[in-house]
Amino acid sequence: MKLLATLCTAVAAGSLLVAGDAAGTAAPQAGADPAAVAAVGRAATFTTVFGAPLAVEGLTGDQAGNLYSAGRGGDPCPVWRVSARGGAAAVVGNIPAPCSPAGIAFDARGRLYVADGDEVHVFTPDAATPPTSTVFAAGVPGANGLAFDRTGALWVSDGGTGQGRVWRVGSDGVPAEMFRVQPMVSDVNVVNGVGGVGRDVRGLPPGQVTITPTGRAAADTAGSQHLVANGLAFTRDGSLLIADTARGAVWRVTFDRRGALRSPTGCDTTFTPNTLCLSNIVVVHPYLDGADGIAIDRAGNVWATANERNAIVVVTAGGTAIEVFRNAPDATTRLRNGGPMEFPTSPFLSDRRLCVTHSDGARRDNVPNSAGEASPTGAVRAKISCLDAPLPVPGLPLPVR
After folding, report:
1. Is 94 in contact with 130 (CB distance < 8 Å)?
2. CA-CA distance, 336 to 66, in Å (whole number)?
3. Which strands sit side by side in the sheet containing 175-180, from one edge to the other?
């Protein structure tokens, strides 16, 4: 199914808040031309390559042009493989119930890792006899974003609790907390015994804020966003980029040759000593509100899904934020929930092809989530769609052949 998107092509300079080695900022590289990136969005069309019967969030792929994503809330939770060109989906593995998988990533040996709750599961995909995953790492609460570094160690973000933790997991499966992204919920900011909110979205137009009890602090049920460590991606120079959903930002963390953290921490005694200083933010911009997953191309551009805005944003290697596209407002309601973006969560670059998962969450621009192709009560609960136009720069080489 092809969907025409009326896309924004405005280019705006992001707020660069970092400088020098502490920030690890990179110089603009060939192909990171804002005009060329913005041109991708003009009158673009998307093809839905998989309509999922369960919610999906994470997305990865192999060099054969296949995409992989895990379904949420199944018994068990299936992990699907589908071609980026479309076609039948195949179950290549299962995660035991109860399960709510998020981030997903391959290692260099072709094993697939899936974040689930406070664990990371692993298995080798097999469509003929789909295996049941086993626990690779435990003790990683809120496990969400996954990324492998150049040594083969797995990095895991806490995209569930709002504490901003990031772990490194070695081959033994034992996690070690390496640092924290500065949270937006703290014990210092307390009202009547309730923790402080993150980015407060209660002032947005009616119909664009979800006020649904979630079991978290009362402030969360009023529409705040407090998740500060979400999608992860490593650059070619070994720096780690982190999507900050609450601030609408991207952080850069650098390491020395021994792998020790080089980025500054401990600037604010409100937080734990291993909490990153704000100088580690590469860019913060309203376009990035709701930044979820991220992917990097070979020019150093960072492709981000801004889930709360039903948009896709690119941050160039030089720190310019570009809203490549966003759902057009409905002529009558002015809402932006009719697609093709339906709460986009994870981008994936398959050579020059951009593909995105859509979880159809009921929040901000995707409220109500009954519009569009996916529906909370329909046969299609979520989807994977791919941009039809080729990207000006391909994605980074994939580890799996």
Report:
1. yes
2. 30
3. 143-148, 154-158, 165-169, 175-180
Cis ω for the linkage preceding 368 (within 30 of 0): yes
Structural domain boundaries in the chain: 2-184+226-374
What are the distances in angstroms from CA 334 to CA 205, 310, 366?
A: 10, 13, 12
- Give the closest residue to 384 by CA, choosing from 44, 54, 56, 78: 56
One-letter amino acid at 369 equals: N
Distance, in Å, from the CA atom of 394 to the CA atom of 297, rounded to the nearest integer, reads 6
Contacts 24+ apart (CB under 8 A), 268-272: 268/182, 270/186, 270/188, 271/180, 271/182, 271/183, 271/186, 272/180
Which residue in this structure is represented by tokens 């596209």?
Answer: 325
Q: How would CATH label the architecture of 2-184+226-374?
A: 6 Propeller (2.120)
Residue 94 CA to residue 80 CA, distance in Å, equals 9
Residue/partner pairs of 169-178 with CB below 8 Å, 24 or more apart: 169/120, 169/136, 169/137, 169/140, 173/135, 173/136, 173/137, 173/138, 174/137, 175/137, 175/138, 175/139, 175/140, 177/274, 178/261, 178/274
Tell me the pLDDT tens digit for each residue of 331-345.
998 999 999 999 999
Task: Tell me how far apart the alpha carbons of residues 348 and 386 are, in angstroms, rounded to a whole number.
Answer: 9
Over residues 140-156, the pLDDT tens digits come to 999 999 999 999 999 99
- Phi/psi for 216 (5° steps) reads -90, -165
- pLDDT-derived band at 363 (thresholds 50, 70, 90) equals confident
pTM: 0.87
Q: Supply the pLDDT for residue 270.
A: 83
Structure tokens at 277: 């200083």
Q: Is the pLDDT of residue 172 over 70?
A: yes
> Residue 193: pLDDT above 50?
no
4, β-bridge pairs: 45
Which tokens in the block code for residue 337?
């929930």
